[in-house]
Amino acid sequence: MKRIFSWKMNTAFMVLVLVMCAFLLSGCADPKQSAAENRDLFAMDTYMTLTAYGPQASSALDAAEDEIKALDQLLSTGNPESEISKLNHDGKSILSDVSAYLLQRSLEVNAITDGAFNPLIYPLMNSWGFTNREFTVPDEGTISEQLQLLDLQDMHFDETTKQVSFDQPGMMIDFGGIAKGYTSSRIMEIFAEQGLTSGLVSLGGNVQVLGTKPDGSSYKVAIRDPEHDQTFLGIVEACDEAVITSGGYERFFEDHGVIYHHILDPKTGYPADQDLISVTIVSSDGTLADGLSTALYVLGVAKGSEVWKAHSDLFDVIFLTEDHKLYVSDGLRDEFTSNGYPVEYITAEIDHT
Ligand code: ADP
Ligand code: MG
Predict the structure, then answer these.
(1) Could you read off the pLDDT of 178-221 as tens digits, one per residue?
(2) How many other β-carbons are positioned within 10 Å of the β-carbon of residue 343?
């Protein structure tokens, strides 16, 4: 009797376990959890697509859209009312938390890239006409004058009071090389705060993903191939990461048969003239990834690889060179698949001394 009872108990337990499993499995496949909701918008001079999964998708997308608009208002150099425009006009200001954070991160990227990223690039961008699309090749005199305005020693920034001031008239800040990466990481934070475990954002060439896809597999982020419009140069398998690409092909003009693009080398004042078509950074830190994609495009493969070797715990990198090769940092060996380009891996040198 006792045995029958315990057999019944065991059976009941097994059935309970099976029902729980079925319940959990059906939970994973719950159409409410896995249904994607998309939102397209234009802000920060870029077409953006946001995708959110789960029952809170709509409210998460609303909150993300509000944040994008607020950041655009705050940071846009094209809007004379923005905080950054006012700072650039007045030469001094007490910054909001967001702008102070972006300035501090910009200085961090500047420091680790030997000055290749410079947040004071705005006057030079202006001289080339990238800010108002009245493109022109500045004369040598103008370029050497503008180069004087890039000296970070002439900017005073107190991280505690958030007070910033410029010593020289005409010095101006431009967060164009870092703001979209910050925005994508903020969107991921908002998604998580709203209870989402999966989502993605694409801001132009910049992609950042939250978690995995609802089915548990990693997101497959295709990196655009600037040379071939309809295809991609490879795929990164990403989870909780940003995949951010910079290249001269994004914005440029032609003058007397020469192409001039919008990523400027702060050492020369001219568009970065390296061996590169594009640089892609993969990192869990979207702000850093954006800043570095611009900076490593300026530095080129050799110097850029050195930056990776010194900070391989923070990011990975894919360089596409003009001779159509990919140089890929070792950390991406299992996560990156080339779409037909030959790949050479960059490995950290082991110091045997
Ligand atoms: P995009 O914004 O086109 O995706 P990037 O992230 O590389 O590409 O940012 C390019 C922008 O960064 C330029 O439009 C300009 O605002 C700014 N910028 C250009 N050169 C530099 C530089 N050397 N350091 C910091 N910012 C730069
Ligand atoms: Mg950038």
Answers:
(1) 999 999 999 999 999 999 999 999 998 799 999 999 999 999 99
(2) 15
pLDDT score of 353: 54
CA trace torsion 7, 8, 11, 13 (10° rounding): -110
Query: Does the pLDDT value for residue 8 go beyond 90?
Result: no
- Contact 84/75 with Cβ under 8 angstroms? yes
Tally of CB atoms within 10 A around 316: 23
* Torsion sign (Cα): 120, 177, 233, 257: negative
Contact call for residues 117 and 177 (beta carbons, < 8 A):
yes
Ligand 1, atom 8: nearest CA belongs to which residue? 246
Q: Virtual CA dihedral for 10, 14, 17, 18, nearest 10 degrees?
A: -170
Structure-block tokens of residue 181: 């990466």
Provide the whole-model pTM: 0.90
CA of 148 to the centre of ligand 2 (A): 23
Residues lining ligand 1, Cβ inside 6 A: 117-118, 121, 125, 174, 176-177, 180, 204-205, 246, 250-251, 262-264, 266, 290, 293-294, 298
Q: Which of 155, 294, 298, 303 to mutate to test the pocket of ligand 1 (most atoms within 8 A of CB)?
A: 294
Ligand closest to 298 (CA) is 1
33: pLDDT confidence band, cut at 50, 70 and 90? low
Distance between CA atoms of residues 280 and 297, nearest Å:
9
CB neighbour list of residue 67: distance below 8 Å, 6 or more residues apart = 183, 186, 187, 190
Q: Is pLDDT larger for residue 34 or for residue 234? A: 234
Ligand nearest 292 Cα, by number? 2
Residues contacting residue 92 through CB under 8 Å, at least 6 positions apart: 163, 164, 165, 166
Specify the residue for token string 């004087």: 148
Average pLDDT over residues 263-273: 97
